[in-house]
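Good day; I would like, with your permission, to put a structural problem before you. What I wish to show you is a protein chain and, alongside it, a tokenised description of its three-dimensional fold. Please examine both parts with care and let me know of anything in them that strikes you as inconsistent. Thank you for your consideration; the sequence and its tokens are set out here:

***
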Amino acid sequence: MPPGLRAMLARDPDEPHRAASSLELLFDLVFVVAVSQASGALHHLWEEQHFAAGVLAYAMVFFAILNAWINFTWFASAYDTDDWLYRLTTFVQMAGALTIAAGAQRAMLDNDFAAIVVGYVIMRVAMAGQWTRAAISDPDYRGTCVRYAVGILVVQVLWVAWWLVDGPVWLFPVLAAVDLAVAPIAEHHRQTAFHHHHIAERYGLFTLIVLGESVLAVANSIIGSMSDAAERTGLIVIAACSLVIVAAMWWIYFDRPQHDQTVTRPRAFFWGYMHYFVFASAAAFSAGVEVAIAVRLHESHLPHTVAGLTLTIPLAVFVVATWLSIDAVRRDAIQAVGTVCLGAALLLSALLPYPLFGAAAVMVAAAALVSWRHAAESATCLGRP
């Protein structure tokens, strides 16, 4: 074995005090740029009234961002050796993520997916290299690692072919489904030894990244209020309501630990991939806030209800997707009905004279519902009425 390298053996899934490494945090910072570029392009498309095309392009770009992040995150939880080769390979993946970030707006605004495909292939081929190294070092999980490596490489050939022949848009979800199938096929016979608490922490950190996009939008509203005295009050109200909503989103997501969501393989896959909707909707809300600011500054001429829907649809998706990811398994009828009603109320709040007021009130109610039902569950488990 070359100097400075360690055998890439599966880490102890019960390792105490396992936390995200500084390299993982640096890796996540690269994705901040990619998410920001995607949500910014969505804002522009919505302002130009390209709603369906904007959502479709955003969904495609966000898939490239998130799927590459997910596979690295679960791999690192099981096989982070932190030697020089692991670090260099991770830096290559970061380069791929930056390429995706650089091409996000061109893909969404001009339908040019060249940089997205190139960046995604860079990330995924490097990931296949990591799985190959694990297969060589760890005989106990060799079959799983080989299936991952081969599956990833085969799918990259399909992605490149789709791009080179200028394949139709409808083929994208088909290839995405094939890409997503690699993990359950690879893990079918033996599941990798990931760390439950570590995975929950990593997903929580990415949630903070997408919520940070909305915090940035809030800051933009405050900055705008400083330069436009005539609209100062309205912009400050937008900032205040948006901050209340972001706080409610944080509350809803982080109100209870989530490490128990990954105990069984089917639940782990459902929880992990359902976060696509959690993350994408949270980042899309920031685009809705930017639309609200543009309307207030008379830089956008979207109809009132349409502008409101750019805020409330992402929030409704976030509330429902978070419930499906975290709480639906508990089969709490009160929370299930409440979540559906609150999601509908969010959509209807776009009809109000001030949609952000209504959305903020509904999101506070959603956070209160989550806290109440979690407290009720805890009391039941402790034997209290």
